[in-house]
Design a protein that fits this description.
single chain, 256 residues, alpha/beta, Rossmann fold, 6 strands, elongated
């Protein structure tokens, strides 16, 4: 082999070596998103059942963008959604947790009669989120999330115009939302976000106007899965809050 040929071969090898050291180009869409947390959260969750493990596995799956979760009271819908959000936060997949809830109540006192600004008025509605964080995190981690504005509560009526990138959205008590409100919620989903839409069809307080069950049924198909929308259903057998709650739910269901 001639000297010229050897030099050419050496040059080709050097170029190939340089190329192999260049990381592959990130083809993900460029979107505005907040920096992820630097603090690693100490998540202390209870032992999970096989059904709960399947939920978490599905919730953390990259292809799942939006998860519609149906189930009776005490079946851990909110608990597991918050747990999944915290795990995603630790994995630096999302930056914030947004807790969305309808302002509809079964009592006569309405949100508008409460004093203070919107966030003050929503405070009682964020209580389920704080309760779940109390179960899952030590106090110092909760204070970190609050101080760093990593958790936010919003009523369903405040969502117009929002765009969620790289956030986990836990939408709770969605059986108290109309189809229009649920569409507004679902269409806020931007890139890299994970949306959990939780509802109990047995506990709607809006007199037959709930859109949750029809939306759940509409997206419970293979075409929706191809677009990242999945459904997950808990039953009375999955109630873990207490044996009493399980008995109450089963008894009331017989009323039809």
């Amino acid at each position: 082999m001639s000297k010229k040929k050897r030099l050419q071969n050496r040059k080709i090898k050097q170029e190939e070596q340089i190329k192999s050291q260049i990381p592959p180009k990130d083809k993900s869409p460029v979107v505005h998103q907040r920096n992820k947390i630097e603090h690693y959260l100490t998540i202390l969750h209870r032992e999970l059942t096989e059904k709960q493990k399947k939920f978490i596995e599905l919730a953390l799956d990259k292809k799942v963008k939006l998860l519609l979760v149906s189930g009776p009271a005490g079946s851990t819908k909110t608990y597991l959604s918050v747990l999944a959000a915290l795990l995603l936060m630790n994995e630096k997949k999302i930056s914030d947790i947004v807790y969305v809830r309808s302002i509809v109540e079964s009592a006569d006192v309405k949100m508008g009669t409460l004093p203070g600004e919107a966030d003050d008025k929503l405070s009682p509605y964020k209580r389920p989120l704080i309760d779940k964080l109390d179960e899952l995190l030590p106090k110092e981690d909760i204070q970190y999330l609050i101080k760093d504005n990593r958790i936010e509560g919003l009523p369903i009526g405040y969502l117009r115009g929002l765009n969620w990138n790289a956030k986990a959205i836990v939408a709770d008590e969605m059986q108290n939302c109309t189809k229009k409100e649920l569409v507004t919620l679902m269409t806020r989903t931007g890139e890299f976000s994970k949306v959990f839409v939780c509802g109990d069809p047995q506990q709607s307080d809006i007199n037959g106007r709930s859109g949750f069950q029809s939306i759940f049924n509409l997206f419970n198909d293979d075409e929706s899965k191809e677009h990242g929308i999945y459904t997950f259903e808990f039953t009375e057998d999955d109630i873990l809050r207490s044996a009493l709650v399980k008995f109450i739910v089963q008894k009331i269901k017989n009323l039809g």
